[in-house]
Amino acid sequence: MLTRFTHLTFFLDLSEEMIALAEAAAKRAAERAEGMTHHRDYEALAAVALCFQPRRIFEIGTYRGVTSDFFLSLLPESRVVSIAYENPRLRIFGGHSNNSELGRTEIGSMVSPENRPRFTQLYGNSHKLDSKSLRRECGPFDLVFVDGDHSRTGVAADTVLAQEVLASGGTICWHDANPKPAYLEVRHFLEKELSLPAAATADDFVGGVACWNSEIERRLAQNRSAVA
After folding, report:
1. CATH assignment, 2-227
2. pLDDT higher than 90, residue 95
3. What are the phi and psi torsion angles at 208 (to 5°)?
4. Of the residues 38, 40, 168, 171, which has the fewest C-beta atoms closer than 10 A?
5. Angle 92-93-95 from CA coordinates, rounded to 5°
């Protein structure tokens, strides 16, 4: 279930200084992403990161590592663990993963040298991860960003994984709340099947971020009570 907002920075009551920081970081990241991720997606992620200050972040779907580097640069005390699915060299059918065309040397390649010591790259299928082992070895995580398998069953499975490795009070964010046509199953899942009440960006651009934690859930309930 999604409640959409034009600016998550206002919903989260960020200060003017933090809003300026979020906008500047988003602009830099969007330029590096070269159209793969909208600057308003990065503004939303920056708002969440600055508001809740996660120290351990798990990203499902690395691609070239721009988003990982974005978090690491925005939060100098944070660490990022990111998993990328490598598609087989010979495929009959196209996959739903966001790094379908990348080889191993390209995955995560845009994480900057100064941020590398705080970055851990995993390779494999997130659906086959042992959540208990991941939580024990790398977590629990204060923020999980779901941007891997964009099929309905894939995003559902990654959402379960996110809940299993999440720290108490942690945040889950999903990309593609208003996606390009190939990823419409993600939007359907978030709007129709997600049981968690999440705040999301407006759907007037391609991309979109949804986010949930207990504080966001409280604020959404408060907003509904005020309207009623």
Report:
1. 3.40.50.150
2. no
3. 95, 140
4. 168
5. 135
Give domain limits for the chain.
2-227
This prediction has a pTM of 0.93
Q: In what order do the strands lie in the sheet with 141-146?
A: 2-5, 198-201, 207-212, 166-178, 141-146, 56-60, 79-84, 119-123
Give yes or no for a contact between 174 and 147, defined as CB atoms under 8 angstroms apart.
yes
Q: Of 200, 156, 153, 158, give the one whose Cα is nearest residue 179.
A: 200
Q: Which residues pair with 121 in a beta bridge?
A: 82
Residue 23: strand, helix, or coil? helix
- Strand-pair category, 79-84 with 207-212: unpaired
Kindly tell me if the per-residue pLDDT of 22 is higher than 90. Answer: yes
**Across residues 29-52, what is the average pLDDT?**
96
Do β-strands 56-60 and 79-84 pair in parallel, antiparallel, or remain unpaired? parallel
Structure tokens at 94: 């196209």
DSSP 125-181: -GGG--HHHHHHHH--EEEEEE-S--SHHHHHHHHHHHHHHEEEEEEEEEEEEE--G
Question: Which pLDDT value is given to residue 1?
Answer: 85
Question: Among residues 54, 55, 47, 52, which one has the least CA distance to residue 18?
Answer: 47
Rounded mean pLDDT of the chain? Answer: 92
**Encoded amino acid at 94, one letter:** G
